[in-house]
Amino acid sequence: MRTAKDFFTPLAVGAPTPLREIPARPSRAIHFFDPGNEKMAAKIPAMVGTTDVLLGNLEDAVKAENKEKARNGLVKIGQETDFGPTQFWTRINSLDSPWVLDDLTTLVPAIGDKLDVIMVPKVQGAEDIHYIDRILAQLEAKAGITKPLQVHAILETARGVANIEEICAASPRMQGLSLGPADLAADRRMKTTRVGGPHPGYLVRGDAPRTDDGGFAYDAERATYQQDLYHYTIARMVDACVMHGIFPYWGPFGDIKDTVACEDQFRNAFLLGCVGAWSLHPVQIKIANRVFAPSIEDVTHARRVIAAMGDGTGAVMIDGKMEDDASVKQCKVQVELAEQLAAIDPELKDLYDAIETPEA
Ligand SMILES: CC(C)(COP(=O)(O)OP(=O)(O)OC[C@H]1O[C@@H](n2cnc3c(N)ncnc32)[C@H](O)[C@@H]1OP(=O)(O)O)[C@@H](O)C(=O)NCCC(=O)NCCSC(=O)C[C@H](O)C(=O)O
Ligand SMILES: [Mg+2]
Protein backbone atom coordinates (compact mmCIF):
# COMPACT_ATOMS: atom_id res chain seq x y z
CA MET A 1 0.00 0.00 0.00
CA ARG A 2 1.25 3.48 -0.88
CA THR A 3 1.02 5.80 2.11
CA ALA A 4 -0.80 9.15 1.86
CA LYS A 5 2.58 10.88 2.02
CA ASP A 6 3.82 9.04 -1.09
CA PHE A 7 0.60 9.00 -3.09
CA PHE A 8 1.33 12.21 -5.01
CA THR A 9 5.07 11.64 -5.40
CA PRO A 10 6.11 10.90 -9.02
CA LEU A 11 6.93 7.20 -9.53
CA ALA A 12 10.05 8.01 -11.56
CA VAL A 13 12.66 10.73 -11.19
CA GLY A 14 11.76 13.49 -13.63
CA ALA A 15 8.16 12.36 -14.20
CA PRO A 16 5.47 15.06 -13.91
CA THR A 17 3.83 15.64 -10.52
CA PRO A 18 0.56 13.66 -10.29
CA LEU A 19 -2.71 15.59 -10.46
CA ARG A 20 -4.47 16.24 -7.11
CA GLU A 21 -7.85 16.38 -8.81
CA ILE A 22 -9.10 14.93 -12.11
CA PRO A 23 -10.42 17.80 -14.25
CA ALA A 24 -14.15 17.53 -15.06
CA ARG A 25 -13.84 17.94 -18.84
CA PRO A 26 -17.03 17.16 -20.78
CA SER A 27 -16.81 13.70 -22.36
CA ARG A 28 -20.33 12.86 -23.53
CA ALA A 29 -19.13 10.68 -26.42
CA ILE A 30 -15.83 8.79 -26.42
CA HIS A 31 -15.66 8.17 -30.16
CA PHE A 32 -13.76 5.01 -31.17
CA PHE A 33 -11.89 4.74 -34.45
CA ASP A 34 -9.39 2.27 -35.88
CA PRO A 35 -6.27 4.30 -36.72
CA GLY A 36 -5.11 1.56 -39.10
CA ASN A 37 -8.27 1.81 -41.21
CA GLU A 38 -7.40 4.44 -43.84
CA LYS A 39 -11.03 5.40 -44.51
CA MET A 40 -11.75 5.99 -40.84
CA ALA A 41 -8.42 7.65 -40.13
CA ALA A 42 -8.96 10.13 -42.96
CA LYS A 43 -12.17 11.31 -41.31
CA ILE A 44 -10.59 12.11 -37.92
CA PRO A 45 -9.27 15.68 -38.51
CA ALA A 46 -12.76 16.77 -39.64
CA MET A 47 -14.32 15.16 -36.55
CA VAL A 48 -12.39 17.43 -34.15
CA GLY A 49 -14.95 19.61 -32.36
CA THR A 50 -17.88 17.30 -33.18
CA THR A 51 -17.21 14.92 -30.30
CA ASP A 52 -15.78 15.53 -26.84
CA VAL A 53 -13.28 12.65 -27.12
CA LEU A 54 -11.57 10.98 -30.08
CA LEU A 55 -10.14 7.58 -29.11
CA GLY A 56 -7.73 5.64 -31.28
CA ASN A 57 -8.48 2.00 -30.54
CA LEU A 58 -5.64 -0.52 -30.63
CA GLU A 59 -7.36 -3.42 -28.82
CA ASP A 60 -10.36 -5.60 -29.71
CA ALA A 61 -11.87 -4.87 -33.16
CA VAL A 62 -8.34 -4.43 -34.55
CA LYS A 63 -7.16 -7.65 -36.18
CA ALA A 64 -3.94 -9.21 -34.83
CA GLU A 65 -2.12 -8.70 -38.13
CA ASN A 66 -3.06 -4.99 -38.10
CA LYS A 67 -1.88 -4.12 -34.58
CA GLU A 68 1.32 -2.47 -35.75
CA LYS A 69 -0.43 -0.60 -38.54
CA ALA A 70 -3.00 0.73 -36.07
CA ARG A 71 -0.29 1.82 -33.62
CA ASN A 72 1.69 3.61 -36.35
CA GLY A 73 -1.50 5.15 -37.72
CA LEU A 74 -2.29 6.52 -34.28
CA VAL A 75 1.15 8.10 -33.98
CA LYS A 76 0.68 9.80 -37.37
CA ILE A 77 -2.78 11.12 -36.44
CA GLY A 78 -1.51 12.29 -33.06
CA GLN A 79 1.41 14.14 -34.57
CA GLU A 80 -0.48 15.72 -37.47
CA THR A 81 -3.80 16.68 -35.85
CA ASP A 82 -4.61 19.83 -33.90
CA PHE A 83 -7.22 18.50 -31.46
CA GLY A 84 -8.37 21.94 -30.26
CA PRO A 85 -11.06 21.47 -27.60
CA THR A 86 -11.42 17.72 -28.29
CA GLN A 87 -9.69 15.27 -25.97
CA PHE A 88 -7.39 12.67 -27.52
CA TRP A 89 -7.44 9.21 -25.91
CA THR A 90 -6.23 5.75 -26.84
CA ARG A 91 -7.25 2.24 -25.82
CA ILE A 92 -4.10 0.11 -25.55
CA ASN A 93 -4.02 -3.66 -25.81
CA SER A 94 -4.68 -5.71 -22.70
CA LEU A 95 -1.89 -6.25 -20.20
CA ASP A 96 -1.71 -9.98 -20.94
CA SER A 97 -1.21 -9.40 -24.69
CA PRO A 98 2.07 -9.41 -26.62
CA TRP A 99 1.35 -5.91 -28.00
CA VAL A 100 0.87 -3.70 -24.96
CA LEU A 101 4.52 -3.03 -24.16
CA ASP A 102 5.14 -1.83 -27.72
CA ASP A 103 1.96 0.28 -27.51
CA LEU A 104 3.26 2.11 -24.45
CA THR A 105 6.90 2.44 -25.47
CA THR A 106 5.87 3.75 -28.91
CA LEU A 107 3.00 6.05 -27.99
CA VAL A 108 4.38 7.87 -24.95
CA PRO A 109 7.61 9.18 -26.55
CA ALA A 110 5.90 9.93 -29.88
CA ILE A 111 2.58 11.49 -28.83
CA GLY A 112 2.54 11.42 -25.01
CA ASP A 113 2.31 15.23 -24.99
CA LYS A 114 -0.86 15.09 -27.14
CA LEU A 115 -2.66 12.20 -25.40
CA ASP A 116 -4.96 13.01 -22.50
CA VAL A 117 -6.05 9.57 -21.32
CA ILE A 118 -4.93 5.97 -21.78
CA MET A 119 -7.77 3.47 -21.57
CA VAL A 120 -6.70 0.10 -20.16
CA PRO A 121 -8.91 -2.90 -20.96
CA LYS A 122 -9.76 -5.90 -18.77
CA VAL A 123 -8.39 -4.41 -15.54
CA GLN A 124 -8.58 -7.04 -12.81
CA GLY A 125 -7.31 -5.24 -9.74
CA ALA A 126 -5.04 -2.53 -8.33
CA GLU A 127 -1.95 -4.49 -9.45
CA ASP A 128 -2.77 -3.74 -13.10
CA ILE A 129 -3.03 -0.02 -12.43
CA HIS A 130 0.20 -0.06 -10.39
CA TYR A 131 2.00 -1.65 -13.36
CA ILE A 132 0.70 1.00 -15.78
CA ASP A 133 1.34 3.81 -13.28
CA ARG A 134 5.01 2.97 -12.89
CA ILE A 135 5.76 2.34 -16.54
CA LEU A 136 4.00 5.56 -17.59
CA ALA A 137 6.09 7.52 -15.06
CA GLN A 138 9.30 5.98 -16.44
CA LEU A 139 8.31 6.74 -20.03
CA GLU A 140 7.11 10.27 -19.22
CA ALA A 141 10.41 11.00 -17.43
CA LYS A 142 12.45 9.67 -20.35
CA ALA A 143 10.42 11.65 -22.91
CA GLY A 144 10.39 14.86 -20.84
CA ILE A 145 6.59 14.97 -20.71
CA THR A 146 5.29 17.64 -18.36
CA LYS A 147 1.56 16.79 -18.10
CA PRO A 148 0.78 13.44 -16.43
CA LEU A 149 -1.14 10.98 -18.59
CA GLN A 150 -4.43 9.92 -17.05
CA VAL A 151 -5.64 6.33 -16.89
CA HIS A 152 -9.14 5.00 -17.58
CA ALA A 153 -9.95 1.38 -16.70
CA ILE A 154 -12.55 -0.80 -18.41
CA LEU A 155 -14.62 -2.89 -16.05
CA GLU A 156 -15.10 -6.10 -17.98
CA THR A 157 -14.29 -9.02 -15.72
CA ALA A 158 -16.00 -10.35 -12.61
CA ARG A 159 -12.74 -9.89 -10.70
CA GLY A 160 -12.54 -6.29 -11.86
CA VAL A 161 -16.06 -5.64 -10.58
CA ALA A 162 -15.24 -7.33 -7.25
CA ASN A 163 -12.08 -5.17 -6.94
CA ILE A 164 -13.69 -1.96 -8.15
CA GLU A 165 -12.83 0.16 -5.10
CA GLU A 166 -9.13 -0.70 -5.13
CA ILE A 167 -8.96 -0.05 -8.89
CA CYS A 168 -10.42 3.45 -8.48
CA ALA A 169 -8.04 4.20 -5.59
CA ALA A 170 -4.91 2.67 -7.12
CA SER A 171 -3.34 5.83 -8.59
CA PRO A 172 -3.83 9.60 -8.80
CA ARG A 173 -3.84 9.02 -12.59
CA MET A 174 -7.24 7.28 -12.41
CA GLN A 175 -9.63 9.38 -14.54
CA GLY A 176 -12.63 7.04 -14.73
CA LEU A 177 -14.18 3.67 -15.47
CA SER A 178 -16.21 2.35 -18.41
CA LEU A 179 -18.40 -0.69 -18.36
CA GLY A 180 -17.45 -3.20 -21.08
CA PRO A 181 -20.63 -5.27 -21.36
CA ALA A 182 -19.43 -7.75 -24.00
CA ASP A 183 -16.29 -8.95 -22.23
CA LEU A 184 -18.05 -8.76 -18.87
CA ALA A 185 -20.90 -10.95 -20.13
CA ALA A 186 -18.40 -13.52 -21.46
CA ASP A 187 -16.33 -13.52 -18.27
CA ARG A 188 -19.42 -13.89 -16.08
CA ARG A 189 -20.76 -16.64 -18.38
CA MET A 190 -23.94 -14.61 -18.89
CA LYS A 191 -26.16 -16.01 -21.65
CA THR A 192 -26.35 -13.01 -23.94
CA THR A 193 -24.49 -12.50 -27.22
CA ARG A 194 -25.34 -8.79 -27.48
CA VAL A 195 -22.87 -5.91 -27.07
CA GLY A 196 -24.83 -4.06 -24.38
CA GLY A 197 -28.56 -3.49 -24.36
CA PRO A 198 -31.48 -5.24 -22.71
CA HIS A 199 -32.47 -8.85 -23.44
CA PRO A 200 -35.96 -10.10 -24.34
CA GLY A 201 -35.53 -13.09 -22.02
CA TYR A 202 -34.55 -10.98 -19.00
CA LEU A 203 -37.91 -9.55 -18.05
CA VAL A 204 -40.61 -9.01 -15.50
CA ARG A 205 -44.19 -10.04 -16.33
CA GLY A 206 -47.40 -8.43 -15.15
CA ASP A 207 -49.72 -10.43 -12.86
CA ALA A 208 -52.18 -12.89 -14.40
CA PRO A 209 -55.70 -11.40 -14.55
CA ARG A 210 -58.44 -12.79 -12.29
CA THR A 211 -60.98 -15.27 -13.67
CA ASP A 212 -64.72 -15.05 -12.88
CA ASP A 213 -64.42 -17.87 -10.35
CA GLY A 214 -61.73 -15.99 -8.36
CA GLY A 215 -58.73 -17.86 -9.80
CA PHE A 216 -55.99 -16.61 -12.16
CA ALA A 217 -55.85 -16.80 -15.97
CA TYR A 218 -52.18 -17.78 -16.15
CA ASP A 219 -52.27 -18.34 -19.90
CA ALA A 220 -53.83 -14.91 -20.67
CA GLU A 221 -51.89 -12.30 -22.66
CA ARG A 222 -49.76 -10.34 -20.15
CA ALA A 223 -47.49 -7.34 -20.49
CA THR A 224 -43.76 -8.03 -20.12
CA TYR A 225 -40.97 -5.53 -19.60
CA GLN A 226 -37.37 -6.13 -20.67
CA GLN A 227 -34.88 -5.39 -17.93
CA ASP A 228 -31.34 -4.05 -18.03
CA LEU A 229 -28.80 -6.84 -17.47
CA TYR A 230 -26.19 -4.32 -16.30
CA HIS A 231 -28.20 -2.19 -13.89
CA TYR A 232 -26.42 -3.49 -10.79
CA THR A 233 -22.96 -3.05 -12.30
CA ILE A 234 -23.61 0.50 -13.53
CA ALA A 235 -24.93 1.56 -10.13
CA ARG A 236 -21.95 -0.08 -8.42
CA MET A 237 -19.57 1.68 -10.82
CA VAL A 238 -21.15 5.10 -10.28
CA ASP A 239 -20.83 4.82 -6.48
CA ALA A 240 -17.20 3.69 -6.68
CA CYS A 241 -16.24 6.47 -9.11
CA VAL A 242 -17.97 9.25 -7.20
CA MET A 243 -16.44 8.06 -3.93
CA HIS A 244 -12.98 8.39 -5.52
CA GLY A 245 -13.56 11.64 -7.44
CA ILE A 246 -13.36 10.02 -10.89
CA PHE A 247 -15.88 9.60 -13.75
CA PRO A 248 -18.19 6.70 -14.75
CA TYR A 249 -19.14 5.87 -18.38
CA TRP A 250 -21.40 3.42 -20.16
CA GLY A 251 -19.35 1.52 -22.78
CA PRO A 252 -20.45 0.34 -26.24
CA PHE A 253 -23.88 -0.21 -27.75
CA GLY A 254 -23.29 -2.68 -30.57
CA ASP A 255 -26.62 -2.48 -32.43
CA ILE A 256 -25.59 0.51 -34.53
CA LYS A 257 -28.83 0.59 -36.55
CA ASP A 258 -31.04 0.65 -33.43
CA THR A 259 -30.51 4.29 -32.57
CA VAL A 260 -33.65 4.33 -30.42
CA ALA A 261 -32.48 1.57 -28.06
CA CYS A 262 -29.00 3.09 -28.03
CA GLU A 263 -30.50 6.37 -26.86
CA ASP A 264 -32.40 4.52 -24.10
CA GLN A 265 -29.24 2.74 -22.94
CA PHE A 266 -27.30 6.01 -22.86
CA ARG A 267 -30.13 7.85 -21.09
CA ASN A 268 -30.40 5.22 -18.37
CA ALA A 269 -26.67 5.60 -17.77
CA PHE A 270 -26.97 9.41 -17.71
CA LEU A 271 -29.86 9.30 -15.23
CA LEU A 272 -27.87 6.97 -12.95
CA GLY A 273 -24.87 9.32 -12.88
CA CYS A 274 -22.65 8.41 -15.85
CA VAL A 275 -21.01 11.34 -17.66
CA GLY A 276 -20.75 9.76 -21.10
CA ALA A 277 -20.68 6.63 -23.28
CA TRP A 278 -18.68 5.16 -26.15
CA SER A 279 -19.58 5.90 -29.74
CA LEU A 280 -18.64 3.16 -32.23
CA HIS A 281 -20.06 4.82 -35.33
CA PRO A 282 -20.47 8.52 -36.23
CA VAL A 283 -24.26 8.15 -35.83
CA GLN A 284 -23.82 7.50 -32.09
CA ILE A 285 -21.97 10.77 -31.41
CA LYS A 286 -25.08 12.87 -31.86
CA ILE A 287 -27.05 10.53 -29.60
CA ALA A 288 -24.50 10.81 -26.79
CA ASN A 289 -24.14 14.59 -27.18
CA ARG A 290 -27.91 14.96 -26.86
CA VAL A 291 -28.44 12.48 -24.03
CA PHE A 292 -25.52 13.41 -21.75
CA ALA A 293 -26.62 17.06 -21.56
CA PRO A 294 -29.39 18.27 -19.23
CA SER A 295 -32.66 18.95 -21.06
CA ILE A 296 -34.07 22.47 -21.43
CA GLU A 297 -36.93 21.45 -19.10
CA ASP A 298 -34.52 20.24 -16.41
CA VAL A 299 -32.34 23.35 -16.62
CA THR A 300 -35.42 25.62 -16.54
CA HIS A 301 -36.79 23.85 -13.48
CA ALA A 302 -33.38 23.71 -11.78
CA ARG A 303 -32.82 27.44 -12.22
CA ARG A 304 -36.30 28.17 -10.80
CA VAL A 305 -35.61 26.07 -7.71
CA ILE A 306 -32.17 27.60 -7.16
CA ALA A 307 -33.61 31.13 -7.47
CA ALA A 308 -36.51 30.33 -5.12
CA MET A 309 -34.28 28.66 -2.53
CA GLY A 310 -32.11 31.75 -1.93
CA ASP A 311 -29.29 30.64 0.40
CA GLY A 312 -30.19 27.00 -0.30
CA THR A 313 -31.77 26.24 3.08
CA GLY A 314 -35.38 25.72 4.11
CA ALA A 315 -38.31 24.48 2.05
CA VAL A 316 -40.53 26.02 -0.67
CA MET A 317 -43.43 24.87 -2.82
CA ILE A 318 -43.01 25.06 -6.63
CA ASP A 319 -45.82 23.78 -8.86
CA GLY A 320 -47.26 21.87 -5.92
CA LYS A 321 -43.99 20.09 -5.09
CA MET A 322 -41.76 20.52 -2.06
CA GLU A 323 -38.19 21.68 -2.73
CA ASP A 324 -35.56 21.85 0.00
CA ASP A 325 -31.81 21.78 0.78
CA ALA A 326 -31.43 18.37 -0.87
CA SER A 327 -33.42 19.06 -4.02
CA VAL A 328 -31.56 22.34 -4.59
CA LYS A 329 -28.35 20.27 -4.62
CA GLN A 330 -29.86 18.02 -7.31
CA CYS A 331 -30.73 21.15 -9.29
CA LYS A 332 -27.17 22.46 -8.97
CA VAL A 333 -25.86 19.22 -10.52
CA GLN A 334 -27.94 19.96 -13.63
CA VAL A 335 -27.08 23.66 -13.83
CA GLU A 336 -23.34 23.10 -13.28
CA LEU A 337 -23.24 20.46 -16.02
CA ALA A 338 -25.19 22.76 -18.35
CA GLU A 339 -22.64 25.53 -17.71
CA GLN A 340 -19.67 23.21 -18.40
CA LEU A 341 -21.22 22.02 -21.65
CA ALA A 342 -22.27 25.52 -22.75
CA ALA A 343 -18.63 26.56 -22.44
CA ILE A 344 -17.62 24.09 -25.19
CA ASP A 345 -20.81 23.64 -27.25
CA PRO A 346 -22.15 26.82 -28.91
CA GLU A 347 -25.45 25.14 -29.91
CA LEU A 348 -26.18 24.14 -26.33
CA LYS A 349 -25.11 27.58 -25.10
CA ASP A 350 -27.71 29.21 -27.35
CA LEU A 351 -30.40 26.82 -26.09
CA TYR A 352 -29.55 27.32 -22.42
CA ASP A 353 -29.15 31.12 -22.86
CA ALA A 354 -32.64 31.31 -24.36
CA ILE A 355 -34.18 30.02 -21.12
CA GLU A 356 -35.90 32.82 -19.27
CA THR A 357 -34.03 33.36 -16.01
CA PRO A 358 -36.45 33.38 -13.08
CA GLU A 359 -36.61 36.14 -10.46
CA ALA A 360 -34.68 35.37 -7.26
C1 LIG B 1 -19.20 -0.99 -36.75
C2 LIG B 1 -18.37 -0.68 -37.98
C3 LIG B 1 -17.56 -1.91 -38.40
C4 LIG B 1 -19.30 -0.27 -39.12
O1 LIG B 1 -18.50 0.16 -40.20
P1 LIG B 1 -19.10 0.33 -41.67
O2 LIG B 1 -19.77 -0.96 -42.07
O3 LIG B 1 -18.02 0.86 -42.57
O4 LIG B 1 -20.25 1.42 -41.43
P2 LIG B 1 -20.87 2.43 -42.44
O5 LIG B 1 -20.87 1.88 -43.82
O6 LIG B 1 -22.19 2.86 -41.89
O7 LIG B 1 -19.89 3.68 -42.38
C5 LIG B 1 -20.20 4.90 -43.01
C6 LIG B 1 -18.96 5.73 -43.13
O8 LIG B 1 -18.50 6.09 -41.81
C7 LIG B 1 -17.18 5.59 -41.59
N1 LIG B 1 -17.07 5.12 -40.21
C8 LIG B 1 -17.67 4.05 -39.69
N2 LIG B 1 -17.36 3.93 -38.40
C9 LIG B 1 -16.55 4.97 -38.11
C10 LIG B 1 -15.88 5.37 -36.93
N3 LIG B 1 -16.00 4.66 -35.79
N4 LIG B 1 -15.15 6.51 -36.98
C11 LIG B 1 -15.02 7.21 -38.12
N5 LIG B 1 -15.62 6.86 -39.29
C12 LIG B 1 -16.36 5.74 -39.28
C13 LIG B 1 -16.98 4.47 -42.59
O9 LIG B 1 -15.61 4.32 -42.88
C14 LIG B 1 -17.80 4.97 -43.79
O10 LIG B 1 -17.03 5.88 -44.51
P3 LIG B 1 -17.32 6.14 -46.08
O11 LIG B 1 -17.29 4.80 -46.76
O12 LIG B 1 -16.21 7.06 -46.53
O13 LIG B 1 -18.67 6.79 -46.16
C15 LIG B 1 -17.43 0.52 -37.70
O14 LIG B 1 -18.22 1.61 -37.38
C16 LIG B 1 -16.41 0.26 -36.63
O15 LIG B 1 -15.46 -0.47 -36.82
N6 LIG B 1 -16.58 0.93 -35.48
C17 LIG B 1 -15.66 0.82 -34.37
C18 LIG B 1 -15.78 -0.53 -33.70
C19 LIG B 1 -14.97 -0.58 -32.44
O16 LIG B 1 -14.13 0.27 -32.16
N7 LIG B 1 -15.17 -1.60 -31.63
C20 LIG B 1 -14.45 -1.75 -30.37
C21 LIG B 1 -15.16 -1.08 -29.24
S1 LIG B 1 -16.47 -2.05 -28.54
C22 LIG B 1 -15.60 -3.22 -27.60
O17 LIG B 1 -14.43 -3.32 -27.68
C23 LIG B 1 -16.36 -4.10 -26.65
C24 LIG B 1 -16.04 -3.74 -25.21
O18 LIG B 1 -14.68 -3.73 -24.92
C25 LIG B 1 -16.75 -4.70 -24.32
O19 LIG B 1 -16.10 -5.67 -23.85
O20 LIG B 1 -17.95 -4.52 -24.14
MG1 LIG C 1 -13.93 -5.48 -24.13
UniProtKB/TrEMBL annotation:
Checking Pfam families in the record gives:
HpcH_HpaI
Q: Any idea which positions bind substrate? A: 91, 156
Where does the signal sequence lie? none
Q: Where does Mg(2+) bind?
A: 156, 183
Q: Which GO terms describe its molecular function?
A: (S)-citramalyl-CoA lyase activity; magnesium ion binding
What is one process in the GO biological process aspect for this record? oxaloacetate metabolic process
Cofactor(s) essential for the protein: Mg(2+)
Q: Note the SUPFAM superfamilies from the entry.
A: Phosphoenolpyruvate/pyruvate domain (SSF51621)
- Keywords associated with the record: Lyase, Magnesium, Metal-binding
Per UniProt, the enzyme's principal EC class comes to lyase
What are its E.C. numbers? 4.1.3.24, 4.1.3.25
Q: Which residues form the HpcH/HpaI aldolase/citrate lyase domain?
A: 32-194
Q: Does the keyword Metal-binding apply?
A: yes
What this protein is called in its record is Malyl-CoA/(S)-citramalyl-CoA lyase
Q: Which organism is it from?
A: Nocardioides daedukensis
